[in-house]
Amino acid sequence: MNKNSNTYTFIYASVMVILVAAALALTNGLLKEKHNKNSEIDKMTQILRSIKVEADKNNAENLFEQNIKSAYILNSAGQVVNKSPESAFSVEISKEVIKPLEERQLPVYEAQLEGKTLYILPVYGAGLWGPIWGYISLESDRNTIFAVSFSHSGETPGLGAEITTEPFQAPFSGKVLYKDGDFRSIAVLKSGQKSDSQDAVDAISGGTITSKGVEDMLLACLGAYKAFFEQVEAENKEE
């Protein structure tokens, strides 16, 4: 075949495209399992961090098994609709938050830490440059925050990215979601500002939009669990 002909050029290009596509598909297939495993371990690490248990890729699975004793899925009425821990873990909150509330799957993780039960809930929202997400752990009253763990995909280092740091996250501990019997969530306010109607933490200096994103994320995502929070009072009355 004439290597200078258009036919040769077309066939050569087609063969190269097919070979490259096949190589990419093979590589993706070989790495997919490892990628999925790394994603699972990263998720476990973030969940554990929300109960103040530090983990890494080497011990995350063991620590998760030791501390997370149960996981299930609720509906918006606070009813358990799926008791499978595997199903709860596989729920993608990024997809759930865009659904109507009555159609959402709401995962709950129960942890046992130093003899007490903690409830861990996922949250997902928007920062300045992309999505932000995290996990909130609550005391057995399902009202008082035990700890939080936040992450992001593209916030500015030194500004919005500070939501992942201890100075921003630590003040959430001890804050309550309900005031005077009403769900209020947590305000994220400029340093020095206070709110009479809800508990608040300081915003990030220079990271106003990301801080507001955290506030909105907590209000929207935790608000979906109001029926679950309010079950505590009914359960206490039964006892």
**What is the tally of beta strands?**
10
Q: Which oligomeric form is depicted?
A: single chain
Radius of gyration (CA) equals 23 Å
Ends apart, CA distance between termini: 88 Å
The best one-word shape is globular
Q: What fraction of the residues are assigned to beta strands by DSSP?
A: 15-25%
Low-confidence spans: none
Individual helix count: 8
Proportion of helical residues: 25-40%
Strand order of the largest sheet: 2-1-3-4-5-6
Order of helices and strands: HHEEHHEEEEHEEEEHHH
User: Total domains, how many?
Assistant: 1
What structural class is derived from the secondary structure elements? Answer: alpha+beta
Largest sheet: 6 strands, antiparallel
Mean pLDDT across the residues is 91
Textual characterization of the structure:
The chain is α+β, with helices and mostly antiparallel strands and 239 residues long. It has one domain (68-238). Helices cover 39% and strands 23% of the residues. The chain is built from eight helices and ten strands. The chain has helices at 6-49, 60-67, 85-90, 93-96, 166-169, 208-223, 226-229, 231-238, and strands at residues 68-74, 80-82, 106-113, 116-126, 131-138, 145-152, 178-179, 182-183, 187-189, 200-202. The strands form three sheets. It has a six-stranded antiparallel β-sheet with strand order 2-1-3-4-5-6. The protein has a two-stranded antiparallel ribbon with strand order 7-8. Strand 5 and strand 6 form a beta hairpin.
